[in-house]
Amino acid sequence: MMSSVLTWAMLLWVLALTGTLCIFAALLLLYALIQSHNTKVPKWRPRNRPIHLLVVLGSGGHTAEMFSMLRRMELDPTKYTYRTYVVSSGDNFSAKKAVDFETTYLNQKEDPAVSERPPPTTGSYSIVIVPRARRVHQSYLTAPFSTLSSFWSCLLVLRGLHPDQGPLRSESMHSPHPDIILTNGPATAVCIILAARLLRLWLALSTIFLLGSRSATMSNDFRLRTIFVESWARVTTLSLSGKLLLPFADRFLVQWPDLAGKRAWKGMRQTEYAGTLVD
Amino acid sequence: MAMQDQPLKFCFVTVGATASFNLLIQSVLEQTFLRELRAHGYTNLLVQYGKDGNTLFDEFLRQFPPGSEGQHGLLIDGFDFNPDGLDNEMRLAKARPSEGRVGGLIISHAGSGSIMDALRLGVPLAVVPNPTLKDNHQQELADILQEQGYLIASHYQDVAIAVDRAERLRVQMAKWPPVSKAQEIPPPSLDQVMSDELGFLD
Q: pTM for the whole thing?
């Protein structure tokens, strides 16, 4: 009789303890989530600080639209000093377009190794290949698995650890993370943006724990900002990747007026009508 | 053949690289379509038929070999795809007096990449949405761009009619790329949005 009371009391204690721990962890996670979701960027980045831009090249039409936009905005390579292009495996068209854009538009010197199998890592840009999240016509049943492996690859890219990236110019760049991420779909873009948010959550969490590390808190606000541009082809409805990313992208641009002002739920950031961005 | 006396006039048909679109290939190899091209002074038909369009194209050539009645005096040629892009082929439809070419027509699937390429050239464009594609939003884009006067949206069965409509489009085509109309609050440019997110001092 006596012993059973003791075990009950102990069980209660353990329960109470794990309960508090869980609540604490949940609160911490919530705090970190809010921290990492803070959409305001402090205006104190010096003008000439090098910027690492990461561009996700979807495939076919998405890639064509992306380069069309970059040309029309007259992307300045002296401002966006380092560019990473993320390409899905097997998508030679996008990789080729990226090299074309760099060599002919941005007047970068073509590396002789460009045409060889391992993707090039020349001075100011690199092309990174990640596994495909979903092929055209692939069943939605098997898609989650390929998406998972793609997601892992995206995490590596964002941390500068992907094998295709080579030695990441650590001297000129202040962090392995890209400063800004530009995407227009489809699946790989979803992976990259979700991975970026997860990484930001992780960075926010680690700043809470390592209160002392000043360098981390300083540059956290500047890193891994995400912009999603809805495809020019979407006139009245958002694409699947658009719908998925609506609550996660920092900025969500649409190119047709009917799509302006949409949001995931009340209080969230709205989509912004930016007019035709392609040329 | 009287081909030498008359200026070259190209019709270029493209189905893109991603999905096949044999319904369109079939339509542009039909006698009514070829007759219509001939009636509007076309001399050449070039077809990019995609991954598995070659059976249809070869079948057509077997039935109507070059120079036969069924080709209506046109020079008909085809290829599966060009990995370097279709810019050179699209340019054939652009007027170039020095090479004896007048402005022709591009007939394209409704993929955004092909549409942009053709619009940039300023050549009359007929866009044919592929009804077999899942989640067919291509129709929307084709419709709104037709409404704004950039191109002709056509059903694949109506491409023969599109030939005549293209002549009217040639006379009054809207200028590409569109500039946003003067508004009280102009929409932000992509460069602005990116700078915003980077948090520059300014």
A: 0.83
